[in-house]
Amino acid sequence: MAIAENLQEVRCEIAELTQRFERQPESVRLLAVSKTKPVADLLAAYAAGQRLFGENYVQEAVDKCQQLSSLADIEWHFIGPIQSNKSRQIAETMAWVHTIDRDKIARRLSEQRPADMPPLNVLIQVNVSGEESKSGIALESLDSMVKLVSELPNLRLRGLMAIPAPQENEAAQIQVYAPLKQAFETLQQHYPEVDTLSIGMSGDLAAAIASGSTMVRVGTAIFGARDYA
Fold first, then answer.
1. DSSP of 179-199, one letter per residue?
2. Residue 228 domain flag
């Protein structure tokens, strides 16, 4: 499997989309979703210049972080649901967390962040499609969560994340993202450190980039089909 070639194709697609929507190419960062993939695959992506890696499962993320600890410039992002009893491991290893949607988890991550590490970069997950099965808070609850996170000493609020329901076409996807885009832009006006809108995966890259995404999460197009235990 040619991970380097896959990465280049994804980067080219992002570049083409930023040009199409009149955005700067460097305004969209690529997060390689490496869940269930072996360390050898991550090393292949690293050799091809990839530095941001996203993991969904706590123990797997911690193990990979330890195995690749000699690569100081890897940036680890946790993008899965967080259980209270796993929050300490995340706080002690990750650079970013994309899935803050509960007060309790936010407080625990701040309390458990080691004093010798910089504040944990966090994104608040928003349920833009209103699906009961999806994690994330309603946009109506965003203000209170933002206030909490911004006041926690060991967290650094960087922005918002969402995983919308699939839509029929690009226009419908953009419509779903519109309220989130507006919320993000409003947030930026009040919090100077907010700079990250984590939306967009393989199926909706165009809509996400059109809607102001600054970070897209791509897995299969880079590493191939998901590996199951």
1. HHHHHHHHHHHH-TT--EEE-
2. no
- CATH number, residue 190: 3.20.20.10
Q: Are 213 and 199 in contact (CB under 8 A)?
A: yes
DSSP letter at 156 equals: E
Q: Is the pTM value of this prediction over 0.90?
A: yes
Cβ atoms of residues 106 and 148 within 8 Å? yes
3-state secondary structure of 169: coil
Per-residue pLDDT band for 197 (boundaries 50, 70, 90) equals very high
Q: Let me know if residue 71 belongs to a domain.
A: yes
Residue type (1 letter), 226: R
Q: Is residue 229 part of a domain?
A: no
Amino acid found at 64: K
Mapping DSSP to helix (H, G, I), strand (E, B) and coil, where does residue 96 land? strand
User: CB-side exposure of 184: number of CA atoms within 13 Å?
Assistant: 24
- Provide mean pLDDT across the span 143-154: 97
What was the pLDDT predicted at 229? 46
> 199: exposed, middle or buried (C-beta count within 10 Å: 0-12, 13-18, 19+)?
buried
pLDDT tens digits, 36-60: 999 999 999 999 999 999 999 999 9
How many CB atoms are closer than 10 A to CB 219?
A: 21
Question: Structural domain of residue 67, as residue ranges?
Answer: 3-223
The three-point CA angle 38-43-48 to 5° equals 130
Query: What is residue 165's three-state secondary structure?
Result: coil
Domain count, the chain: 1
